[in-house]
Amino acid sequence: MDVYIAIIMFMFGIIFGSFFNVVGRRMPQGESFSTSRSYCSSCSQTLNGWDMIPVLSYLTLRGRCRYCKAKFSFLYPLTELLTGLLFVSSFLVYGWSYELIGALILVSLGMIILVSDLVYMIIPDHLLLFYLPLVILFRTVYPLEPWYSSIIGALTAFLLIFIIIFITQGGMGSGDMKLFGLLGFLLGWQQVLLVFFLSILIGAVISILLLSLRIIDRKTPVPFGPYIIIAALISYFAGSDIMGWYVLLVW
Ligand SMILES: [Zn+2]
């Protein structure tokens, strides 16, 4: 039975993933993502249903526009697949518990930020403002233990990034600061500190990798949002395990 639910969650995930692609690309440009049809950004041709099947269209068209043969970003199928896998993981980890809602909130926010930060280096204020009441409502109905961990988490994260921005003068942006504040409220102060350390660690490892493979050079600006999202997802799905190991190591 659970296998069927996992498959259904995966299908939902890749469909939602293709929606997150659209939101992440249109929101920073102030375009509507609910009314106008999808179109090729290269030749402006409106895409039909066959061009927009998640993952499959990308594979059958070999990542190119049917009309002008312009290359589509690999980010499209990547986001769709990733969302599918994360929807399944959410279900496998949390089952039919209320934290499943929290997981889906985090996955959807994360995938939209992944797209908009990689494409435009922006975490849209509109997006964070949309998620703020959702996260507050969720943590009001299903509070952390103790409940004030959310408030301490939001304040700690916000201040921490504020100081980092002040010291490094541009290592992170105000979008990262607001995102961290939101994550602090959702995850609580201990987990959001874990997100902070993990995101810096992941950022360092990936940057060194990209530099040594000469995909980027020292002057290439790299968005920090995706590292925060990877770290937040790891913390949400495995944070208590990680902190358990840490306590074991320290003791
Ligand atoms: Zn085209």
TrEMBL record:
This is Type 4 prepilin-like proteins leader peptide-processing enzyme. The lineage of its organism: Bacteria, Bacillati, Bacillota, Bacilli, Bacillales. PANTHER family: PREPILIN LEADER PEPTIDASE_N-METHYLTRANSFERASE-RELATED, TYPE 4 PREPILIN-LIKE PROTEINS LEADER PEPTIDE-PROCESSING ENZYME. It comes from the Bacteria. Its main location: membrane. Residues 11-92 form the Prepilin peptidase A24 N-terminal domain. It is found in: Cell membrane. Belongs to the peptidase A24 family. The chain crosses the membrane at residues 6-24, 74-94, 100-120, 148-167, 179-212, 224-249. InterPro entries: Prepilin_IV_endopep_pep (IPR000045), Prepilin_pept_A24_N (IPR010627), Prepilin_peptidase/N-MTase (IPR050882). Residues 104-208 form the Prepilin type IV endopeptidase peptidase domain. Pfam families: A24_N_bact (PF06750), Peptidase_A24 (PF01478). Keywords: Cell membrane, Membrane, Transmembrane, Transmembrane helix. It is a multi-pass membrane protein.
